[in-house]
Design goal:
mainly alpha, globular
Length: 209
């Protein structure tokens, strides 16, 4: 029961102070899950992020579900999900009742204007760390740069980029497996040929004897 309470309170805190979307919460999740609670090792955490970001759905919710399920099964996933979304539901529900006054409040607008640079940093920092933790070679660095340029300057839809990535990845894996099978067949043929030569040599030697 204590574990469920810890999951709930942890994701309540994360959900309450996450500004700027799912990637902005990475620093908070890592601090809580990896460094404080030590529920997940750091390497596993970044592998988890790779899996979560490739799934459809809200990134923050997927992260909460994964961590909760990893720690305490289905019940843990449900508790983590509740903790992650409850603050947003409460805040949005409160804002919707007085949206007009809230939107035109000068103090609120200044607060959000000051928060924007912090949100950029919160998104950029874990993105850089994610690139480092994946231990990719620098030869892959042009890929995210080209993708970002395609989205920003060419106005290309991310949907097409994701679909193209999936097709290229499947084609690459198919080519690798095909190459491996070809090498295995070649090695098998070489082994059969060597075995045949050995049998012929033994047979010839017996005849000579």
């Amino acid at each position: 029961m204590r574990l469920y309470f810890d999951l709930l309170t942890t994701f309540l805190k994360i959900g309450s102070f996450t500004l700027g979307g799912g990637y902005a919460m990475l620093a908070l999740v890592e601090q809580a899950v990896v460094r404080q609670k030590k529920w997940i090792e750091e390497d596993e955490f970044w592998k988890m992020i790779t899996i979560v970001q490739s799934l459809p759905g809200v990134f923050a919710v997927n992260t909460a579900l994964y961590v909760g399920y990893r720690i305490a099964g289905k019940a843990g996933a449900a508790v983590s999900f509740l903790g992650a979304v409850l603050p947003s539901l409460v805040i949005i529900g409160a804002i919707s009742t007085c949206f007009q006054e809230f939107r035109e409040n000068e103090v609120v607008m200044r607060v959000f204007a000051g928060i924007r640079p912090c949100v950029v940093a919160l998104i950029l920092a874990p993105s850089v760390r994610m690139f480092i933790k994946t231990k990719l070679s620098l030869k892959y660095l042009p890929i995210p740069i080209l993708v970002a340029a395609a989205v920003v300057f060419l106005k290309m839809s991310p949907v097409y980029i994701i679909m193209a990535t999936i097709v290229c990845a499947l084609g690459w894996e198919y080519w690798k497996f095909k190459d491996v099978d070809a090498n295995e067949n070649e090695n098998q043929n070489d082994d059969d040929e060597n075995e045949k030569k050995a049998e012929e040599f033994i047979s010839t030697k017996k005849e000579n004897d």
